[in-house]
Amino acid sequence: MTSEEIKQSVTALFSDVIYDETGEFLNILINASELRPLMELLYSKTEFKFDYLFCLTCIDWKTHLTMVYHLLSKKHRHNIVVKAKIADTNKPEIETVCDIWKTADFHEREVYDLFGVKFLNHPDMRRILLDEDWVGYPLRKNYADENMIKL
Questions:
Q1: What fold characterizes domain 3-89?
Q2: What pLDDT digit, counting tens, does each position of 40-69 carry?
Q3: Cβ atoms of 68 and 121 closer than 8 Å
Q4: 66-79: b (≥16 Cβ within 10 Å) or e
Q5: How far apart are CA 138 and CA 14, in angstroms?
Q6: In 13-51, which positions are buried (b, 16+ CB within 10 angstroms) versus exposed (e)?
Q7: Is this structure's pTM higher than 0.90?
């Protein structure tokens, strides 16, 4: 499938998505509330068959967080990036995709640990890198530590 064909198919089902084609991959920007249905579709629909999640991360923009998912279809040899905006930085939550792609399990726990994003319905939502009693989320822009060097 070409990027244009992917856009047409996704737009037919999710009318309020936004696309960005300025980078290497087609970027699909969607609201966090619509992420789960889109991801299920991208995985299960034969024409897409995005069967490999090869990167999952978060970006802190100070005003909001963005979840970023890099997907690959091994069958069709196409790549996309799905980005979901999380507006509430005080209590960031989004649906898990670890039951769709097993690789998301540890990636989501890492994002939880370092950014504080809670993945709803994740089977084991606990810290993976830092101690359980660690205060704060080190990759957030508002994180401060007494040992940090101030610039």
A1: Beta Polymerase; domain 2 (3.30.460)
A2: 999 999 999 999 999 999 999 999 999 999
A3: no
A4: ebebbbbbeeeebb
A5: 34
A6: eeeebeeeeeeebbbbebebeebbebbebbbeeeebbbb
A7: yes
67 three-class SS: strand
- Measured torsion, CA atoms of residues 58, 110, 31, 143, in degrees rounded to the nearest 10: -50
Vertex 25: Cα angle to 119 and 87 (nearest 5) = 35
Report how far residue 19's alpha carbon sits from residue 7's, in angstroms, rounded to the nearest whole number: 8
Q: Do residues 86 and 62 touch, judged by C-beta distance below 8 A? A: no
Amino acid 122 reads H
Which residue intervals of 1-151 are DSSP H helices? 3-13, 35-44, 104-115
